[in-house]
């Protein structure tokens, strides 16, 4: 029988949704899930759970200030969330307004610059194409006038502390509108400690889009189509994966975005291809993982594609049990919450 979205639902008390990060990046809790076994730990314990020769793969995308407020020509208010900056004068976005603007209509954003909505962006009705009306550069305008796009379940507007804590310490490549949140738990001291233990690190880039928060609108998961995201695998990372494989080490994805990029570029022998591409990979139970051996990730939204991904990786029953334990033991959920270290289920290999 095909699985439905409701198969990935669970009850989450609202007070468990973390509204602010832990005082220290490594101060979160860590639930280690290995089949039917789950062990409560601290994230600071992570080095003791790794071995020399392991490879941690991080997503070095940087969150841009992608949220804008403005006015339509008619005077109506609009909120713009950039999905992707295509080039200096073109972007794809989501628009929140009492009535969606028509193609060709202009909007003044941040009381500073004007954009034209040129039409729908492809076949996806949720996204619109924008063009700068009077020149300029979307990258510069976002940095100057945009607001940090905190997730919709965080109830406070972006504050000064969020400017630092909603970025990983290794963020380098601007382009994401949501953080790769598993990486938020790492600080420079932990990275140095891991490298000192003979644990290797590598980086890729996947720019997380606003579509990551979109609810699924189908009943059967087989009917869902993922939004597309751009990723890049550097040659050094591909070489590190191949060397780890050859030496018998483990490839550990830091976050679902790193995992999706690695699996999208994966070869049958567990190595990965160099270069950039778009991915709309949708990982659900039954998927066989080619590259990733372990996964570090946060706790995810009910009925989300990421719940399906972690269920595919660690096992459906294992994830159901782990989430029930996390709720009962008052773990903190979502972007600013606690983390999990997941072992790959035998039938996912």
Give structural notes:
The structure is a single chain. With about 350 residues, the protein is α/β, with parallel strands linked by helices. The protein folds into two domains: about 5-65 and about 160-349, 3-Layer(aba) Sandwich (QueA-like); about 65-145, Beta Barrel (Thrombin, subunit H). About 20% of the residues lie in helices and about 30% in strands. It is built from seven helices and 17 strands. It has helices spanning about 140-145, 160-165, 190-195, 235-245, 255-265, 305-315, 315-330; strands spanning about 30-35, 35-40, 55-60, 60-65, 65-70, 75-85, 90-95, 105-110, 115-120, 130, 175, 200-205, 230-235, 250-255, 275-280, 295-300, 340-345. The strands form three sheets. The protein has a nine-stranded mixed beta sheet with strand order 2-1-17-16-14-3-12-13-15. The chain is globular, with a radius of gyration of 20 Å.
């Amino acid at each position: 029988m095909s699985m439905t979205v409701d198969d990935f639902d669970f009850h989450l008390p609202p007070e468990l949704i973390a509204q602010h990060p832990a005082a220290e990046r490594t101060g979160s809790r860590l639930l280690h899930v290995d089949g039917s076994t789950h062990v409560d730990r601290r994230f600071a314990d992570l080095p003791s759970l790794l071995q020399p020769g392991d490879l941690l793969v991080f997503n070095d995308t940087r969150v841009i200030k992608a949220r804008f407020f403005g006015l339509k020509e008619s005077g109506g208010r609009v909120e713009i969330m950039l999905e992707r900056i295509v080039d200096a004068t073109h972007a794809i976005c989501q628009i929140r307004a009492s009535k969606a603007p028509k193609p060709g209509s202009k909007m003044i954003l941040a009381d500073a610059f004007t954009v034209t909505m040129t039409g729908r962006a492809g076949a996806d009705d949720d996204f619109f194409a924008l063009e700068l009306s009077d020149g300029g550069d979307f990258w510069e305008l976002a940095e100057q006038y945009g607001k940090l796009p905190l997730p919709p379940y965080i109830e406070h507007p972006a504050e000064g502390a969020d400017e630092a804590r909603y970025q990983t310490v290794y963020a380098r490549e601007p382009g994401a509108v949501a953080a790769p949140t598993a990486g938020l738990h790492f600080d420079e001291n932990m990275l140095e400690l891991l490298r000192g233990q003979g644990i290797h690190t590598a980086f890729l880039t996947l720019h997380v889009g606003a579509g990551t928060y979109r609810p699924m609108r189908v009943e059967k998961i087989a009917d869902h189509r993922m939004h597309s995201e751009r990723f890049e695998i550097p040659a050094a990372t591909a070489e590190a994966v191949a060397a780890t494989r050859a030496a018998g080490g483990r490839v550990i994805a830091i976050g679902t975005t790193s995992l999706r990029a690695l699996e999208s570029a994966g070869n049958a022998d567990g190595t990965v291809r160099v270069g950039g591409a778009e991915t709309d990979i949708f990982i659900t139970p039954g998927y066989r993982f080619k590259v990733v051996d372990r996964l570090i990730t946060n706790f995810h939204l009910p009925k989300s594609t990421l719940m399906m991904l972690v269920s595919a990786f660690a096992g459906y029953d294992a994830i159901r049990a782990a989430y029930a334990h996390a709720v009962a033991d008052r773990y903190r959920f979502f972007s600013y919450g606690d983390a999990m270290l997941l072992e790959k289920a035998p039938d996912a290999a």
